[in-house]
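Retry 2 of 3 after timeout on previous attempt. Resubmitting structure tokens to design endpoint.
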């Protein structure tokens, strides 16, 4: 199997006068694990259905492996799709499910069986070939669906929230498995999810989508550390947001006057003195330290244990601030304290109430 690139040029989708996907340009590289991350209704499924040929775009060009495929129906494209509900056939054995697409192509039974066994080995289901899907766990059924999709040797595998029905532990386990299967096969994976943890953990690159538009494309650490829009900054991970106005800009940094004090942050978007702004700091970048360059007084309101982390909620002025620290027994239990953050751990964004609310 070999992955192919997917190139969307000016692709858009309108339903009546509603624009589900605005004009979109994006290139997914051959053999890449590419995630499309965004909230419910932002257009992720629509985009995936356009790639796989289940939906004809209102405009634009779809190319796979450099060839325009707009005119090809789903079953003539080098793509396969795994849906949220998996759609396995309950009365067929596991191996028959896997080989289903091969039977439709007239492949002889012995070859089908051999191919199914190879794929079941790839997804770590050797020994389950003669069971029915109902005799398998949720995670095992998930892997049958993956093996079935890979049986037709797609160049591009489209996965629509395939882990959403699984419990948390299994979901985390399947992330590792999916990534390993993608690496082993070299097939291009396009994975859609509204779960930022999944996207961050698995992807070579992530496209963050909001209201029909891709707002940023990049590797996980880039999207997390250098968000280009307020929506990306707040949708991927948590942020403390301090609103205010910029008082000074210099050397890529900006000072923002907020109700809690004047603080410095990275001015990555090049905002100007006098602009309204939001200063954003991630909970894990907050420190209990009056010595930090940016610091303010706060009172501990709540302390939640989250296994490896302790989440502190503090009140400061009339807002709540969240601080996440490793659970190594040093988290305070109560009281007033100073908390702070380094200027390089804060980013300055234009105000965008809608982005924060979503
Ligand atoms: P979810 O995570 O909930 O599946 P999504 O990001 O995949 O959401 P889409 O299913 O792509 O979102 O839908 C995007 C928007 O387009 C939604 O507002 C949806 O209601 C609308 N939409 C999707 N399909 C149609 C259709 N056939 N006719 C009209 N509107 C549609």
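Retry 2 succeeded. Sequence:
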């Amino acid at each position: 199997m070999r992955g192919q690139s997917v190139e969307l040029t000016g692709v858009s989708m309108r339903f009546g006068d509603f624009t589900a996907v605005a004009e979109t340009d994006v290139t997914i590289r051959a053999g890449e694990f590419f995630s499309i991350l965004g909230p419910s209704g932002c257009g992720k499924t629509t985009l995936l259905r356009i790639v796989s040929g289940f939906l004809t775009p209102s405009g634009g060009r779809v190319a796979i492996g450099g060839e325009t495929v707009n005119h090809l129906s789903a079953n003539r494209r080098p793509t396969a799709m795994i849906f949220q509900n998996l759609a396995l056939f309950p009365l067929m054995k596991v191996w028959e499910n896997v080989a289903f697409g091969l039977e439709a192509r007239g492949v002889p039974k012995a070859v089908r069986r051999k191919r199914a066994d190879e794929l079941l080995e790839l997804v770590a289901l050797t020994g389950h070939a003669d069971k029915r899907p109902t005799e398998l766990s949720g995670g095992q059924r998930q892997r049958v669906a993956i093996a079935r999709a890979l049986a037709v040797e797609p160049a591009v595998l489209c996965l629509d929230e395939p882990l959403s029905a699984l419990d948390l532990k299994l979901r985390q386990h399947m992330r590792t498995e999916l990534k390993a299967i993608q690496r082993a096969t070299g097939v291009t994976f396009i994975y859609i999810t509204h779960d930022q943890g999944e996207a961050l953990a698995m992807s070579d690159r992530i496209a963050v989508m909001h209201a029909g538009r891709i707002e940023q494309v990049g590797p996980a650490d880039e999207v997390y550390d250098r968000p280009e829009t307020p929506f990306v900054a707040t949708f991927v991970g948590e942020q403390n947001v301090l609103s205010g106005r910029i008082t000074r800009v210099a050397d890529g940094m900006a000072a923002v006057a907020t109700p809690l004090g004047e603080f410095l942050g990275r001015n990555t978007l090049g905002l100007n003195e006098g602009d309204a702004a939001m200063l954003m700091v991630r909970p894990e970048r907050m420190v209990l330290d009056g010595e930090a360059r940016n610091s303010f007084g706060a009172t501990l309101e709540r302390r939640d244990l989250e296994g490896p982390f302790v989440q502190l909620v503090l009140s400061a002025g009339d807002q709540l601030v969240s601080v996440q620290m490793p659970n190594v027994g040093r988290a305070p239990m109560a009281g007033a304290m100073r908390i702070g953050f380094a200027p390089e751990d804060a980013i300055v964004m234009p105000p965008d109430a809608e982005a924060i609310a979503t």
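Attempt log closed. Residues 15, 18, 20, 38, 40-46, 194 surround adenosine-5'-triphosphate (CB under 6 Å).
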